[in-house]
Amino acid sequence: MKTILEILAEIRPESDFTGLEDFIEEGLLDSFDVVTLVSDIEKNYDISIEGVDILPENFRNAVAIKALLQRYGVQG
Amino acid sequence: MNFTFKQRAITGLLAVIPSNERSFVEEMANFNFPEKRSLKLAEVMGYDKHRIVDGPVCVSDLAVAGMEHLFANKLLERDGFDALIVVTQSPDYIMPPTSNVIQGRLGLKQDLLCMDINQGCAGFLVGLMQGFLLLDQPSVERVVLINADVLSRKVSLKDRNSYPLIGDAASIAILERSDEATPIHMNLKMDGSRRDALRIPAGGMRLPTSPETAAMSEDADGNLRSQDNLVMDGSAVFNFVQVEVPPMIEAILRTADKKMEDVDVFLFHQPNRFMLEKLASRMGVPLDKMPTNVVEHFGNSSGVTIPIALAFNLSEKITSGGLYACLSGFGVGLTWSSMLMRLGPMQFCKMMEI
Known about the structure:
The complex is a heterodimer. By secondary structure, chain A is mainly alpha-helical. Chain A has helices at about 5-10, 30-45, 60-70. Chain A has one domain (about 1-5, about 25-75): Orthogonal Bundle (Non-ribosomal Peptide Synthetase Peptidyl Carrier Protein, Chain A). Chain A is built from 3 helices and no strands. In chain A, helix 1 crosses helix 2 (about 30-45). The longest helix of chain A has 15 residues, at about 30-45. By secondary structure, chain B is an alpha/beta fold. Chain B has a single domain (about 1-354), classed as Peroxisomal Thiolase, Chain A, domain 1, CATH 3.40.47. In chain B, about 30% of the residues lie in helices and about 25% in strands. Chain B contains 10 helices and 17 strands. In chain B, strand 5, helix 4 and strand 6 (about 115) form a beta-alpha-beta unit. In chain B, helix 3 runs parallel beside helix 4 (about 100-105) and helix 6 (about 235-255) runs parallel beside helix 7. The radius of gyration of chain B is 19 Å and the shape is globular. The interface between A and B is medium-sized, with 18 and 25 residues.
């Protein structure tokens, strides 16, 4: 199973997401990259993220994404 | 707010689509994004093909072609209706109304109400509401509801967020009184405080078009567009739909005293496949009851995606029998609406290309 940072690196291989506070604000992810990210996360962790949870604040950094995934029972 | 209509029916439906088909793959080079990233997005969103007008084709051109087809095939008499409603966000002119343009081009009678409604993705439902209300008048025997848009002409070719999914189309629905019709339930909400989520900034009186408004600039996502182009806050619109639509559907089912299982088909506006699949999942609607194939075959033609979904997928069922349907449109305004009604048997329910 891939880590969040590995999934992000596949979407934007030219970017370094390590330690960044806000992927969206800093221009590493756009609103449509979030859609791709959701799709990849769902496949990787075999979960389905509710539409109402697909908000920029839930994908702004690795901590926020991990917190979201924990709500869907994904640890790590 | 809620509406109920009794003894009202759609008795015929024609969807008109341009023959000019373009594919995402052939247009991908226009976008300011790596190919791999665009292809990945296309897979998730359902971008594939879309139908767009070729050249300066207007709403009235699509509508007149469709109406002449109905006259020629004796599906509608030229003087056989008393109101002509046109729902569009891309009128031929600021003035006169496009409904009057169509009236004049078709040589229709003077004893005819022509009315334009400026509505988008919920426009088919808003048009139905207006048509059903007009049928309260004894002088109105039949209403023609045209829902049409040619918004590809207002979307930047270099806008990967909007251009791949835009579609142009028209639909013509015939509305009549019917003693056999079961009650139709509708709810509708609007929120103008969120109006900026979907808009064309220039071209009205607030900001007339000018060389300055036509200048292209790059947005935070890397898309190039001008103020003359349609702009959508994709994230805000997505969240609006996911938050507002499911409770609206639950409310209309309660109002009609129906269960989700009583509905044969969910005909929702189709902005993209990802959004629809998330909606279906949240509401517990099986995907085989919710067609999602309009956007990938024809593109998002605003409110017209609903009648296209009907004519493309369910024509035979609608003409030979009928279905209990839940219609829903959501978008510009912001506006969101749903309707529960029995569809069919219709005299005709089909598509044509021009």
